[in-house]
Write a structure and sequence with these properties.
It comes from Shimia gijangensis. The chain is an alpha+beta fold. The protein is 30% helix and 33% strand. The strands form 2 sheets. Strands 1, 2, 3, 4, 7, 8 and 9 form a 7-stranded mixed β-sheet that branches. Strands 5-6 form a two-stranded antiparallel sheet. The longest helix is centred in the middle third of the chain and has 15 residues, at 67-81.
């Protein structure tokens, strides 16, 4: 009985996994916000890339979440960071993921395969519906969405 109680208590103990962010690993996510462009309020989409190790952050806004915007944001982010990261952790966007297979592996879209093949970074994906897999970039998306601010080099005020 004593062993059973001990084993049961062990299973119920709260567990913590220390967060470790080695250099060169990026988290990426698209977000939406309202913006004023030329005096007109409209919805914009922006890609945020965050380097959790250094807290470096990149954001670029677009009129829509398109394949072209996705690829352009990567090129711009790599130029901003001064290189290509070792890996990028994504949400399961249809721009990158054609299908999630039964074993959890992702079948990439053609364009995303070409992007990965050209820049030679490792693509990683969060679990579907689990935003906490990439919590750092999720917080950055929310922070940028919820604050009135000027997006550098874009001429856009996010409100």
């Amino acid at each position: 009985m004593k062993d059973y109680v001990f084993a049961t208590k062990q299973r119920q103990r709260e567990m913590f996994i220390p967060l470790r962010h080695p250099p060169g690993h990026v988290q990426a996510d698209f977000g939406e916000a309202l913006a004023v462009i030329g005096g007109v309020e409209r919805k914009i989409h922006f890609l945020v890339m965050d380097l959790p190790h250094s807290d470096a952050c990149f954001l670029k806004a677009y009129p829509a979440e398109t394949t072209e915007a996705f690829c352009d944001a990567h090129v711009s982010a790599f130029a901003f960071f001064g290189g290509v990261p070792v890996s990028i952790l994504y949400y399961n966007t249809r721009i990158a993921v054609a299908r999630i297979m039964g074993d959890g592996k992702r079948k990439r879209t053609r364009v995303f395969s070409e992007l990965v093949s050209h820049y030679l970074f490792e693509d990683r994906f969060g679990r579907p519906g689990k935003g906490n897999d990439k919590g750092k970039v999720e917080r950055m998306v929310g922070w940028h969405r919820d604050r009135e601010q000027y997006v550098p080099h874009s001429g856009i005020w996010m409100i």
